[in-house]
Amino acid sequence: MTNTTLKLLAQQLQLSISTVSRALKDHPDISASTKEKVNALAQSLDYEPNAYAIQLRTQSSKILGVIVPAISNLFYDSFISAVEEESRKNGYALMILQSSNNTENELNNLKIFRQNRVSGVFACLSTSIENIEVYHKMNEREIPVVFFDIVPKDNRFTKVRMADERCAVIAAEKIIQRNAKRVLAIFGDEGLSISQKRKSAFQNFMQSYSPKTHCTYFHAKSSKEAEDLFLKQASKVQKADTVFCMTDEVLIGVMKAVQALEIKVPHELGIISISNGFIPNLYHPHISYVETSGFELGKLAFVQMMANMKGGKTLTELTVDAKFVEGGSM
């Protein structure tokens, strides 16, 4: 089947290609009757503008790029869902690529975005990236970047994230309310700003409001590391009576060990996590958690992207607040 082109429309209507083009763009120089004829034929023949030609002409597209460490992560899944919903409402499509927490993949993804002339990029940094100058080059090419969740320290970018410090403080408050004596706190990759912020806030709160509570701090880059850490700590004479999991990934590892050791929750061990909400409800009893909404973060990120694309560059850092969701584990 032959694609319907401007030339074909012009031939059938015996008009010039430029007249047909301007009619489809609702140009004021074209009469209402001509516009009606052109649009009627275009609709009947399923005419679609050549998106690639438009990209070449405008040096841009109606595509937004999204880089995440892992698409399978439920937090990023809900973030993408929100961004896709808002993009569709505003006439944009998404190109979603994952870095797998690999710097080389991340840089290749940005190259693909540039080649496809995306209109903007939502980026969650990989854990290993050190030099973010490539993102400054995106801005120089007038491709705005909005960082989300795992963001750089550089204040020359627009950043949206969860209220990480507040998340950690809420968790610490609940642990103190439980009257915990020995706390095992497992955070994510220590090289990430999100881990540093959550740990610092948690540690400062516990020292200020419950200095006699014995807290042991660890970092785990994967659920397997978290599982091994918990198993090692559980073998000691003085066991933790409460464990704090900074992420769903940490929670999964801890729960695998808890179930293997047949530890009774919450009688023998209290558990609290920071989560998007899905994983904690897979266990019995449900795990109490501080909610971090990827969906709400996606909505906020899109608003910031639109502001940047319209020229109102919002070089700022915005946060989405957190709330405690009671399960049965504390």
Q: Any guess at the CATH architecture of the largest domain?
A: 3-Layer(aba) Sandwich
3D shape:
elongated
The overall average pLDDT, rounded, is: 88
Number of strands: 12
**H/E element sequence:** HHHHEHEHEHEEHEHEHEHEEHEE
**Radius of gyration, whole Å:** 26 Å
Q: Give the helix level as a range of percent.
A: 40-55%
Count the helices. How many?
12
CATH topology of the largest domain: Rossmann fold
Low-confidence segments, ≥5 residues, pLDDT <50? Answer: none
Describe this structure in words.
The chain is α/β, with parallel strands linked by helices. It has 3 domains: 6-49, no CATH class; 60-160 and 295-320, Response regulator (Rossmann fold), CATH 3.40.50; 164-293, 3-Layer(aba) Sandwich (Rossmann fold), CATH 3.40.50.2300. Helices cover 44% and strands 18% of the residues. The chain is built from 12 helices and 12 strands. The chain has helices at 6-13, 17-24, 32-44, 51-58, 74-89, 103-115, 133-140, 164-177, 193-209, 223-234, 248-260, 294-309; strands spanning 63-68, 93-98, 120-123, 145-148, 158-162, 182-187, 214-219, 242-245, 270-275, 288-291, 317-320, 323-325. A 6-stranded parallel beta sheet has the order 2-1-3-4-5-11, sandwiched between helices. Strands 7-6-8-9-10-12 form a 6-stranded mixed beta sheet, with helices on both faces. Helix 11 (248-260) links the parallel strand 8 (242-245) and strand 9 (270-275). Helix 1 crosses helix 2, helix 8 runs parallel beside helix 9 and helix 10 (223-234) packs across helix 11. The radius of gyration is 26 Å and the shape is elongated. The N and C termini lie far apart (64 Å). The mean pLDDT is 88.
